[in-house]
Amino acid sequence: MTYEENLLALLESYKAGTIDAKTALEKLHAADYTDLGFAKLDHNRSLRQGFPEVVYCEGKTVEQVAAIMEKLAQVHNNILGTRADADKFAAVQKVLPDAVYHKNSRLIFVERKPLPKDDKRYIAVVTAGTSDLPISEEAALTAEIMGNQVERVYDVGVAGIHRLFDKLDLIRNANVVIVVAGMEGALASVVGGLVERPVIAVPTSVGYGANFQGLSALLGMLNSCSAGVAVVNIDNGFGAGRMASIINHMR
Amino acid sequence: MTYEENLLALLESYKAGTIDAKTALEKLHAADYTDLGFAKLDHNRSLRQGFPEVVYCEGKTVEQVAAIMEKLAQVHNNILGTRADADKFAAVQKVLPDAVYHKNSRLIFVERKPLPKDDKRYIAVVTAGTSDLPISEEAALTAEIMGNQVERVYDVGVAGIHRLFDKLDLIRNANVVIVVAGMEGALASVVGGLVERPVIAVPTSVGYGANFQGLSALLGMLNSCSAGVAVVNIDNGFGAGRMASIINHMR
Amino acid sequence: MTYEENLLALLESYKAGTIDAKTALEKLHAADYTDLGFAKLDHNRSLRQGFPEVVYCEGKTVEQVAAIMEKLAQVHNNILGTRADADKFAAVQKVLPDAVYHKNSRLIFVERKPLPKDDKRYIAVVTAGTSDLPISEEAALTAEIMGNQVERVYDVGVAGIHRLFDKLDLIRNANVVIVVAGMEGALASVVGGLVERPVIAVPTSVGYGANFQGLSALLGMLNSCSAGVAVVNIDNGFGAGRMASIINHMR
Amino acid sequence: MTYEENLLALLESYKAGTIDAKTALEKLHAADYTDLGFAKLDHNRSLRQGFPEVVYCEGKTVEQVAAIMEKLAQVHNNILGTRADADKFAAVQKVLPDAVYHKNSRLIFVERKPLPKDDKRYIAVVTAGTSDLPISEEAALTAEIMGNQVERVYDVGVAGIHRLFDKLDLIRNANVVIVVAGMEGALASVVGGLVERPVIAVPTSVGYGANFQGLSALLGMLNSCSAGVAVVNIDNGFGAGRMASIINHMR
Amino acid sequence: MTYEENLLALLESYKAGTIDAKTALEKLHAADYTDLGFAKLDHNRSLRQGFPEVVYCEGKTVEQVAAIMEKLAQVHNNILGTRADADKFAAVQKVLPDAVYHKNSRLIFVERKPLPKDDKRYIAVVTAGTSDLPISEEAALTAEIMGNQVERVYDVGVAGIHRLFDKLDLIRNANVVIVVAGMEGALASVVGGLVERPVIAVPTSVGYGANFQGLSALLGMLNSCSAGVAVVNIDNGFGAGRMASIINHMR
Amino acid sequence: MTYEENLLALLESYKAGTIDAKTALEKLHAADYTDLGFAKLDHNRSLRQGFPEVVYCEGKTVEQVAAIMEKLAQVHNNILGTRADADKFAAVQKVLPDAVYHKNSRLIFVERKPLPKDDKRYIAVVTAGTSDLPISEEAALTAEIMGNQVERVYDVGVAGIHRLFDKLDLIRNANVVIVVAGMEGALASVVGGLVERPVIAVPTSVGYGANFQGLSALLGMLNSCSAGVAVVNIDNGFGAGRMASIINHMR
Amino acid sequence: MTYEENLLALLESYKAGTIDAKTALEKLHAADYTDLGFAKLDHNRSLRQGFPEVVYCEGKTVEQVAAIMEKLAQVHNNILGTRADADKFAAVQKVLPDAVYHKNSRLIFVERKPLPKDDKRYIAVVTAGTSDLPISEEAALTAEIMGNQVERVYDVGVAGIHRLFDKLDLIRNANVVIVVAGMEGALASVVGGLVERPVIAVPTSVGYGANFQGLSALLGMLNSCSAGVAVVNIDNGFGAGRMASIINHMR
Amino acid sequence: MTYEENLLALLESYKAGTIDAKTALEKLHAADYTDLGFAKLDHNRSLRQGFPEVVYCEGKTVEQVAAIMEKLAQVHNNILGTRADADKFAAVQKVLPDAVYHKNSRLIFVERKPLPKDDKRYIAVVTAGTSDLPISEEAALTAEIMGNQVERVYDVGVAGIHRLFDKLDLIRNANVVIVVAGMEGALASVVGGLVERPVIAVPTSVGYGANFQGLSALLGMLNSCSAGVAVVNIDNGFGAGRMASIINHMR
């Protein structure tokens, strides 16, 4: 019984007089989040924001990740784990055999009732170079599990700008655009000047030396001379996918 | 005759056979931008993106700012000048007497045909402290001149969080939320966790010492534990207003 | 015979005339610290400040750590080793079989005469996310071995602020509050605005990208808009536990 | 009628039946804070935390500061304005003639009913050099207006450490110690190793070159090899005074 | 008599037997540089490298600048002073009435025998925005006084990339390209991908907030994904002009 | 059939009437770049710029690198892979047995038709210390595969400056000079003051502590007091070799 | 009566029986330093270290500086004030008419009994450029007032290295060498490789852009590839002069 | 035959007429350094500066280190290798069986004719904590191989300052003092204020979090409020030992 079904049953019981008001409130409260001691699983937020519950796996122990995802799967249909290494996935798979792992993007998917997608609006994920793919896939997969259609436009960095122009219609027709780029991150500014839709820029740590682990792309995107660009953390493909999804679902 | 009217007249002439195709193309191209030598005024972008032409005044001379705005006013109804000091406004006012100056936010407005506003959707501009007002007003005024209704929620920083909760409905009912905060910028994370709409975060340079001219708020917002937050440059109220406007106009 | 008993015996001998003044002074001085060559063990400081002797294990060799802790155990009842890896604990355990290891927090405990605890005053250790647990446990365990009662309030980061409010009474009734948070560290400001007690903030290196190994949380906490917050080093759970213990023992 | 008297009158009216419950609640709520539009004055927090209302003046206009302080003076006996320049004080003085200005520390005081002081416990403010005086005075004056006795120990930096040892008893007998130092900030570590009481360290921007506006002292204090030291923002004398006051009032 | 004429006369005297070898050597050595005490004017380097002697005026006193330029004018035909404010120019003009001042670029010119220019090869100075003009003019004027033809392509930043493409032929036909840009400096990467000639990139401090006085553009340009781009210091228009001139004179 | 031959055949077919204009254009376009999905191989750029196609291997998977280089080898004679580890080379070698690996410089070479070299002009690669050799070899080998003669002048750092002067003629006679140095990078300034040719400076990450992974050399070179020095990214031997090659091929 | 004479008189009185032991000790202690409240003047340190008492004037008020220097002049023959602006000197001159001001170096001198100088050993102050003169003069003047002979070697930066070699004998014969340089600070490494004596390096803030107020020179000098170089703070000419003086007085 | 013997033999041959002037010069030049291609071994510098030839091993290959040290051992009696790992030592030991390895300090010693030591002057190496020992041993061993007597004063950090005072005589009687400290590096300032001899400060990377790999100690030492302190690179024990040795040998 998922969280939503649980809540409905509760309300019905109260309406039917099976439980009194005080009990109903207590149960409602208990349903709100599960306290595992080391973690408080916030079911209500997920419901309220209409997207799968998300688990940030980095810094958690293998055991914690498995316990959290197992518990979540009892009340949610779709779950996403981010920044998970192979060991954590192995532990999750033991308790949730239908979990799927996207190795390069370090995502764990449990997707039992895929969210419906509006096939008329899509998010374009535009990527500077092949080395940025793990992050752009993190963004694209996140957007997809949250119920969005995604078009991938990969390896169109500004060093060979005709590759970008060849794909311009695909980018301009998108409802929201995610730009993923490392090194100097110039792609965000160029795309930002070409489209009329919101651009979510993801700086990546791709590069070396004076890129300072993504600082160069981050500063480049924050200082974009194109208006209509907003930035998420370095290598935060998930955050960009989530942000784009929120915007894409607006009516 | 504004840029739009100019284009229409041109197309009419061609349809009527007054000018031939070659001439029409040349004129269209000439209309595209005005080359002042030191600046190329990009009329087409403004038209395409449906918002007033914007002039970044910092680093330009007084004479350049006045010349650019004067020229723009010949082809556009609404113009915005950002980061303008009083001297630059004085020079603009000489050539454009209907220009208006918002001193604290350093904005110059020429607004001859205000854009229509959808009064059912508004952008909330949520601000941590009174010292952040110049930047939040820059965001709010930018959003307004670009045709958006704006609700201001000021001085609701997290140090006294009940002030924020008193305004929660107003914030949650917004279509897009701009959060403006200096110091540690925590307000962005708190608001991001409370709303289901996109949050555009503007770090400000308010504070001192280890705020490092806004770095603390910038890093805080980039590392927000709440998904659904994207960030613009430090003190970039204009950029946030512009980004929120793009999103707010999406249908 | 512990350091304290040693000192008392010495004073008795002098009073009884068994030793003369010069000998007493020499012995007192010798008791003050033990010089191992590579380390000078400061017994007096420990006595003076009323808490177990603490060994910072990082950067010391396995042999040095074992030798220091063995020597300390000859004159102290309670010893704490911080930032110790498993190899160092293994070496310590050989010479001190009753040593206990808290793996995630990398603490070594020797606790032969636990300090008495005031059960009416407690320190609350409030933690943003599960990934911060190693550091918050370091703080909590440090406070406990130093003779304090501790209440743990875990996974109450600001992204889901109702989890925090559910625990507000527990936090407000604490005598001292430790806040442990990574990423943007906003929890410190929010808690600081809600309580009337001193808040010790511990930034953690949890996060990635523009968190710059904890810099984002550090700057966030230093710039907290809430007064009554003071900060220790990144990931310094021990320092926070120690500081909170000092304050909690004040009368 | 101050805030406290106002609340009491309200409760009396309700008890006497002059007003009904609904009205009482509304009035209570209204009393909670005053909304000036550009600022929300939080009376309750002040009451709850038992110290004068504090106004951070930097970044606010002269008019805003005067309006806020005037309003606060209607409901509070004691008010503190921090980081105020002479112009702002002049404006405040017009509306509050009994306001007092501490020029070097940039503090504005309105102190109508000085808080009682426990003359058995004092806060020691220990300062490295004469150039740090504006910040240490900010700390000391803040602590005093918040009802604490303060002992000033000035110009005892570690370059001439016998000056510090001459004052050691005064420092060791303090209930709480504030250490104010610029340059390398070593005084915090030395004092931290000598006392058994909590040490609040304030890095100052005193110095030049590689002090990077206080970064050197800040990092030095955060990395203090002495436990029992917690740090506030660079030049944040107010924050240290406030933190020390909270601790000093604990029983 | 200029430095070159002086050397020739010396050699002639020696050939004619008017002076002996030892005297010739001594005079040659003396001619090499002039020692003013506070400065050693290096005539030989100028001759060897074939460009006007250059004086970096910042940090020198008004008197020093005037004395140096006056002395240089006795042995050189063309002199360049960089980063000179109006006061320094005024002092120079008193002793060298034919000196010319380019105010925005802070250059002082003494150009008595302009160097010949190859009119078939030119340096393109491509600039992102009008606010970058002081620096791009510094580059262009430096290149011109060093004997190069220069084409200016101004205000073609990537936010409106069609402005750049309109000028592409002019840029592609240049022998060397200088790209001047602030903010994120993306123009360097875009141009670098479009041309086959060496690109000298000049990051400017134009922008605010997270541009950190030009750091964003600097890092962006250093991390350019386009090969064939090399970078000079922030705002170093002179260095770029000088570098481009060296390359442009190669055969 | 290489890219060039392919293009020629296409043009011939069209001239001969074997294919019509539309087909020719489509084929031309298809020849322009190969879209592998995860990468778009830009054949035209390579042709246009007259140097081997270059693959940046870092951040790409082993499979991606092998696939890209295999595909490129079908249309190009000479290919360069940079920053490749041994695993990636092993995979490339399987599909391209004639690939050669320069282990220390992490370069993969496929060189089937070496480009002709002008033996009268050479690039000097001047290196401060033996530890900088991997980077200076990256620069030298890059320049060689791009058709340049290279002279290596190694271990001539400024700590023993007579070693540099012994090689001065070799350096001064070069057409272009690359200076590779870590630590403080002073060699670039010294060489820049001695030669009349363009100097491309490569800061390396050689050093420790306050070199901050190459920052010290980078800043040193950017602030060189010698004009005629331009800088590439830290450890970017490839970029320097490429830049020098462009300049060296200019006529 | 100076400090030294005072002490002698005291000892004589005690020997003669005029004062008893207790009084002697009290007087000795009182002589040790003067407590002005805001400053503790440490006479003993000055005596012990054999150099004039030094007052760091920055951050002190005009009144404090004058009071301190006046008091010091009562017990010391030679006094040095560093980083003093003209206003502070004016105030000092009122109370000490024989005070002398070195404007560019911002030093105040009171030199009543110049220290004897060893004319066989000198300190060489070697300076890169004319813009570094204020700092190198601070170093040279400091060394002179502390009783050292100084040779100035100015404007010998590495961009024209023959100027340095012309002065090599003068530098090599020095007993201690101070190198003052801004920008990339390469001069320290070059000199360090040429001399056998200790080199004290002073980075200056001369330069702009990526010099980051002296950081480039500081890092350059700290990473010097020449052993035998130690570094003081940016622009700390005083510190270098003081350090060189200590070494120069060693026998 | 060592370098010195070699030179003497050469001069004798010339005096005896066995070789002519030209041959003598050529041989002298050849003796000056050995060119291994990847390295130029500078024999003359070593001779001139009177200390063993030093090889910086980091960044060099195992083979290069072994070849360089083998070659050096043919002309020098004493050789020092710094920052060498165990693999490099193993390779050296194969060709130089009498080489000795100091593992913690990563030094390789070949010491065939130990330099004489002045047993009346010693260098004190004062160390804050046991974790700093690898660096302080690097300094002490370097000073010893260069012919100095060394006194080690370990684990006397300022957190327990009485440990330092117990050793004060030993420190004050030193001719030169090296202070090694990590974390906040306060020991340098405290020692600097207590001694009259030059203090060479070595910041170490000991610590974590906001120590930023030694930056905190580095900045602390550069900003020391004690004059007479100069600083070397982070973890540069060798540099400090070398600098102290130069000073200690001065007469």
From TrEMBL, chains A, B, C, D, E, F, G, H:
Cited SMART domains: AIRC (SM01001)
Residues in PurE domain copies: 121-251
InterPro entries from the UniProt entry: P2CMN_synthase_LarB, PurE_dom
Gene3D superfamilies named in the record: 3.40.50.1970
A biological-process GO annotation: 'de novo' IMP biosynthetic process
PANTHER family from the UniProt entry: PHOSPHORIBOSYLAMINOIMIDAZOLE CARBOXYLASE-RELATED, SLL1489 PROTEIN
Protein name: Nickel pincer cofactor biosynthesis protein LarB
Name of the gene encoding the protein in the UniProt record: larB
